[in-house]
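Bumping my old thread because nobody answered last time. Still need a sequence for this structure:
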């Protein structure tokens, strides 16, 4: 069976998508059309994404009005290309940059390409659930005082699990140091369209906000937006780097998908978002009746808002792991989750999720909850903090790339310098970066994730796991 036939077969199955993209394959709302019929190149009358003057310029202006930005750029290579362009436009070779340690790997790629020196902001953590929280404004202030030569700050808000930092306060602090704030809001494109969700980073005053509309809105995979405002960003330089990191042959099918998404938002957002948020409220209300399975509440964390569209379903007090729950939901109930972690799964919802989809998930959790028992105190050794931890940086990622590397057994790696990114995907946040020392806590974390059935990218999956390190020769 080839890929196309496999996708068609999957389309005809009853597997339900609690994952991105946000259109949820809902062709009743987003009318299905043969993409070959509208797949063109930059012919007369259809403009050019890299020098928009006509229809694409008009469409990007429409997006700016809809999302509340001064200027919007279409992205057809995902939020990753927007982040790469934003970092390249706002920094210069070899500079320092202040960035959250829980940023996506595309931000680290931007650091590498521009040979930047990262200064890390560490998010708060919920160690009970093993979840990254947000960045504290006072931490931003303290590090900018300590590193006044950092003129660009990059944060992720919301996180994969939906935790939102106080962007308004952080933007005020960043701007008081005459620095630029870039926010990776890939998972928050839906924020402007209902008061039930946190405020967008655009409203919070960030200079550049990157949003993946394909993640939480009805748009095709790879489609995203770069929102820009204020006078701090050199927009000509940003456009230059967008052309560097975007395809020179942008897909008109993808751009048409952005246009259709905007049609939906302009025409139907009130009715659909009202139904959607009611379904979310009902789900959370029913989840309070579960005995063993725990669904993180919308107001779970003091000091940080949380996006209720992200259903974080925990089995931490049971004998089941997050990976086992993920597999059971998939194999027994045909419910495809977005992500599995050690003690929880993440179900991504969107405005096009159906009543049937929510009902199927609830019935599955209710049935599983009845068969679970609380586990007795277990001696399982867990990392003290299962999130991003402070690592000793011996080399920048660029310096590490210039060194020879070798593969050694994971159990012999303590004290060596890492030669590759080590991360879980999703969400794509590095546990270790090239150039960082591999310490005992990090090894403990990697072994723990492997014991719970998770795939750790960058670690060979042989009988004896191996890791890339900088050669000592």
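Sorry it took so long. Here it is:
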């Amino acid at each position: 069976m080839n890929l196309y036939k496999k996708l068609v077969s999957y389309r005809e199955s009853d597997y339900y998508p609690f994952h991105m993209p946000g259109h949820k394959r809902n062709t009743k709302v987003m009318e299905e059309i043969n993409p070959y019929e509208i797949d063109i190149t930059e012919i007369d009358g259809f403009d050019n994404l890299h020098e928009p003057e006509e229809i694409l310029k008009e469409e990007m202006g429409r997006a700016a009005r809809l999302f509340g930005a001064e200027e919007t750029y279409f992205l057809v290579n995902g939020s990753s290309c927007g982040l790469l362009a934003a970092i390249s436009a706002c920094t210069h070779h070899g500079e320092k940059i202040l960035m959250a340690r829980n940023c996506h790997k595309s931000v680290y790629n931007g650091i590498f390409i521009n040979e930047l020196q990262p200064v890390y902001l560490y998010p708060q953590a919920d160690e009970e659930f093993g979840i990254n929280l947000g960045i504290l404004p006072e931490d931003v202030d303290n590090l900018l005082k300590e590193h006044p030569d950092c003129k660009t700050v990059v944060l992720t808000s919301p996180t994969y699990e939906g935790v939102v930092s106080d962007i308004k306060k952080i933007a005020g602090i960043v701007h008081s140091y005459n620095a630029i704030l870039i926010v990776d809001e890939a998972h928050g494109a839906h924020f402007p369209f209902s008061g039930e969700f946190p405020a967008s980073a655009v409203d919070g005053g960030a200079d550049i906000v990157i949003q993946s509309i394909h993640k939480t809105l009805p748009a095709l995979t790879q489609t995203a937006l770069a929102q820009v405002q204020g006078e701090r960003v050199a927009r000509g330089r940003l456009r230059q780097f967008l052309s560097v990191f975007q395809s020179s042959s942008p897909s008109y099918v993808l751009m048409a998908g952005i246009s259709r998404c905007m049609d939906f938002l302009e025409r139907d957002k009130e009715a659909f978002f009202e139904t959607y948020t009611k379904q979310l409220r009902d789900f959370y209300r029913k989840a309070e009746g579960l005995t063993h399975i725990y669904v993180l509440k919308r107001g779970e964390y003091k000091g940080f808002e949380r996006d209720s569209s992200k259903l974080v379903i925990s089995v931490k007090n049971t004998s089941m792991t997050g990976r086992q729950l993920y597999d059971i939901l998939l194999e027994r109930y045909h419910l495809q989750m977005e992500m599995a972690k050690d003690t929880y799964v993440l179900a991504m919802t969107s405005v096009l999720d159906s009543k049937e989809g929510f009902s199927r998930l609830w019935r599955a959790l209710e049935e599983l909850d009845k068969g679970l028992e609380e586990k007795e105190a277990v001696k399982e050794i867990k990392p003290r903090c299962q999130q991003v931890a402070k690592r000793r940086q011996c080399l920048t990622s660029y310096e590490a790339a210039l060194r020879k590397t070798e593969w050694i057994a994971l159990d012999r790696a303590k004290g060596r310098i890492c030669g590759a990114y080590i991360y879980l995907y999703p969400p794509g946040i590095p546990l270790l970066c090239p150039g960082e020392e591999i310490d005992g806590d990090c090894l403990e974390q990697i072994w723990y994730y492997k014991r719970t059935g998770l795939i750790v990218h960058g670690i060979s999956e042989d009988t004896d796991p191996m890791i890339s390190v900088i050669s000592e020769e």
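Residues 139 and 335 are 40 Å apart (CA to CA). Let me know if any region looks off to you.
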